[in-house]
Write a structure and sequence with these properties.
Layout lengths: L2 E4 L15 H9 L30 E7 L7 E8 L6 E6 L11 E4 L1 E6 L9 E9 L7 E7 L8 E4 L8 E6 L6 H15 L6 E3 L10 H11 L2 H4 L2 E3 L6 E3 L7 E3 L3 H4 L15 E5 L2 E5 L6 H13 L5 E5 L14 H13 L4 E4 L5 E6 L19 E2 L2 E4 L20 E7 L4 E8 L2 E8 L4 E8 L7 E5 L22 H10 L4 E9 L4 E9 L2 E8 L4 E8 L2 E9 L4 E9 H7 L20 H12 E5 L2 E2 L6 E5 L6 E9 L6 E6 L10 E8 L2 E8 L4 E5 L1
Parallel strand pairs: 10-11, 11-12, 16-17, 17-18, 18-21, 31-38
Antiparallel strand pairs: 1-39, 2-3, 3-7, 4-5, 4-8, 6-7, 8-9, 10-23, 13-14, 15-16, 19-21, 19-22, 20-26, 23-24, 24-25, 25-26, 27-28, 28-29, 29-30, 31-32, 32-36, 33-34, 33-37, 35-36, 37-40, 38-39
Helix pairs in contact: 2-3, 6-7
């Protein structure tokens, strides 16, 4: 498969030794490209699903309610059926305690669209999606609706319109559901509804599923939330996992094919980002949804307009990639440089984010415009705040926190954090007071604070309210997230295999075997062990990891594109028909063979190309050098190109050594100004295009 993610792994310059490869080794091991383990062998019994479990039928499912731009008078409902149901209707009436309220119902014909995703690898389904927008509703009124084709109907479902005036309300907010959706996210979202049964809406900050176009995972998400999705309007933004390639043949990443058919969200954002970038005004609060995957500058221009013309008392922004990250190795500098100044200038109260699979809540210093320097004179600045930034996770996938908190950002301070904890947030708004609470999946209070509006546009007063919250949760004081070997067994293994580091452990408990699978590595050498429950090594399998690394950088100010290709010398010799240990060509040495460059270029031209704006660049070696030693010796080959025209697209192919090693993976770390990507290219998918 071709693998592409927004990455922050390359946060420091790569040193000139074999240590340059350690990052790639860890990346490949953690992302499973060299994993020998499969789900059936894990101690946790991963559920299986019937073949057609997620397929649509004649009965309406995936019923979703969304607010329009004005939630006091409009709401939209969307549902899914099989393609044989070619028409849809919604009936709606003011709900009453008398059961035959339906006598006053009106019927509205739905807009029906067919989603033919039979050629999308993760979907392979054709569905009909039906949507109805209810208009001219009465504010602050409970309505009941049902959907169907005129014969087959859903149950009657109730929702309440917003007030057309400022009035107290509450809402829920969750971070990434993404993994173990039906198994574990279900308990979290249901606990959230139990904590906030009167909530007006719920914010989903992206990565609701793991594979963008997966029909099964979307069905898990709808099943886990059940009727909550049809009663509690959703305000959703996409995360990086809502973008993915459609198939092996079409590797370009695109928004989930299900996103727009299944949601009916406002279309008042940037052109081209419909239903992923928008705003809603609700009872004195403006909720701004931003797409943190594309068109950042265009959204910044739009954001200034939306913030500068905002009549609401409160402003909340939601998007996926945090401006201040919770987890290690992540930083979204471009977003922060574009959006934070606007958050400061227009005093955005709360930023609700996802992506980091951990919890962090902190704040920035109050923004003081020119002439306001003395606005807090004589007061304790700790009692006042600028935007409060929150990162949260609701699903079962967990990461480590940043070890240095938010020390990299002197203007920000992290006040509360958590690892290995599913959380849901309930926010109450009442006039000048916003009260925030975060709860665990078992209902314990984890975090709380109040924001109090001050007169004359002064910064919000900030009050900590977590006196009754449970202690801070970390990996070292919670049930282990990772499977682990018993300490004495781990010590014995590392003593026997000196120099190897244990990188992963999976505990096995099934009818065939009880024990552990452990993966160790030393350099590019990998060792897979089968260990009994008593600590005996039953099987050891050694192999070499096969990969190359390319660092690609482009800076628009210098108009310079550079490539630094790193190849293991043993692999290169073998690809050129030489003994792996040969020094015949003496690459990068004073006695380098006159044939070395020509042979190297002839080989690379067969397996590598770079196309800028559709035009292939000529491979011309600028320099090369050897690094490392022994079997870890690498040849670095450097290419440099002046690129005067704006970068619109870049296509990279790298299939080196795939003719020798079927498991070869070629990593490309691409940095373009402030955009970063990691590509994993291999024999099956040797190329990928990036668009700008």
């Amino acid at each position: 498969m071709t693998f592409s993610i927004n990455h922050q792994l390359k946060s420091i310059p790569i040193t000139r030794s074999f240590e340059i490869i350690q990052k790639s080794l860890l990346f490949l091991l953690l992302t499973g490209f060299f994993s020998i383990l499969n789900a059936q062998e894990r101690a946790y019994k991963v559920p299986e699903f019937a073949k057609n479990w997620s397929k649509p039928g004649q009965h309406p499912d995936h019923i979703m309610i969304n607010y329009g731009q004005d939630p006091a008078t409009t709401a939209s409902v969307t549902w899914r059926t099989s393609e044989e149901i070619s028409v849809g209707y919604a009936e709606i009436a003011v709900a009453t305690a008398a059961p035959k309220f339906w006598r006053n119902a009106v019927t509205i014909e739905a807009v029906t669209e067919t989603l033919d995703a039979t050629d999308v690898d993760d979907a392979q389904v054709t569905s009909n999606y039906h949507s109805v927008t209810f208009e001219k509703l009465q504010p602050e009124t409970i309505y009941a609706y049902r959907v169907g084709d005129g014969k087959i109907w859903s149950e009657w479902i109730q929702f309440k319109t917003a007030s057309d005036k400022e009035a107290p309300f509450s809402f829920l907010y969750v971070g990434d559901a993404q993994n173990y959706i039906l198994e574990l996210w279900s308990r979290l979202i249901r606990e959230g509804y139990r904590k906030g049964p009167g909530a007006s809406f719920i914010i989903h900050a992206g990565d609701m599923i793991n594979n963008a176009h997966s029909e099964r995972q979307w069905h898990e998400w709808y099943t886990a939330g059940g009727w909550i999705h049809s009663m509690l309007p959703s305000i959703s933004v996409p995360g990086n996992h809502e973008y993915g390639s459609l198939s092996r043949e079409n590797s370009e990443r695109s928004l989930s094919v299900q996103w727009r058919p299944q949601f009916t969200l406002p279309e008042n954002g940037v052109e081209g980002l419909e239903e992923t970038n928008y705003y809603i005004d609700h009872q004195g609060m403006r909720i701004i949804a931003l797409n943190s995957l594309e068109k950042f500058e265009e959204q910044a221009e739009w954001l200034e307009k939306v913030l500068s013309n905002n009549p609401n008392r409160w402003t909340v922004a939601t998007y996926h990639h945090p401006l201040y990250s919770a987890s290690a190795g992540r930083a979204n500098d471009e977003l922060r440089s574009l959006w934070k100044p606007l958050f400061d200038k227009y005093k955005v109260d709360l930023a609700l984010q996802g992506h980091d699979h951990a919890y962090a809540r902190g704040r920035v210093e109050p923004y003081l415009a020119e002439g306001e320097q003395n606005v807090l004179g004589g007061l304790n600045k700790r009692d006042y705040t600028g935007t409060v930034y929150v990162v949260s996770v609701s699903g079962g996938k967990m990461y480590d926190l940043r070890p240095n908190a938010w020390d990299d950002w002197p203007e920000a301070e992290r006040d509360r954090a958590a690892e290995n904890t599913q959380l849901v947030q309930l926010i109450n708004v009442d006039g000048d007071k916003l009260s925030y609470q975060s709860f665990t999946a078992t209902g314990e209070l984890y975090d709380a604070f109040d924001l109090i509006k001050q007169p004359d546009g002064k910064p919000n007063k900030f009050i900590e309210r977590r006196g009754y919250a449970i202690d801070e949760r970390r990996h070292d004081n919670t049930i282990s997230y990772e499977d682990q070997l018993p300490a004495n067994t781990k010590a014995e293994i590392e003593k026997k295999y000196q120099g190897y580091e244990t990188v992963s452990v999976s505990m096995i408990d099934n009818t065939e075997f009880k024990g552990y699978y452990a993966q160790l590595r030393e350099g590019r050498n990998r060792l897979d062990l089968t260990v009994s429950s008593s600590g005996d090594i039953l099987k050891a399998n050694a192999q070499q990891l096969r990969f190359s690394q390319t660092d690609m950088e482009y800076t628009s100010d210098k108009k310079l594109l550079t490539l630094n290709l790193k190849l293991f010398l043993n692999d290169l010799n073998e690809a050129l028909g030489l003994d792996p240990q040969s020094n015949e060509l003496a690459f990068g040495q004073s006695n380098e063979s006159p044939r070395a460059n020509a042979m190297l270029l002839d080989y690379l031209k067969k397996f590598i190309y770079v196309k800028v704006n559709g035009k292939e660049l000529e491979l011309q070696i600028k320099s090369k050098q050897l690094t490392g030693e022994g079997n870890n010796t690498t040849l670095e080959v450097y290419f440099e190109y002046q690129q005067t025209l704006p970068l619109r697209s870049l296509e990279v192919k790298n299939a080196v050594f795939t003719e020798l090693f079927p498991g070869q993976n070629n990593l490309v770390y691409a940095d373009f100004d402030k955009r970063s990507e990691v590509l994993v290219l291999n024999k099956t998918n040797p190329s990928q295009q990036l668009d700008f």
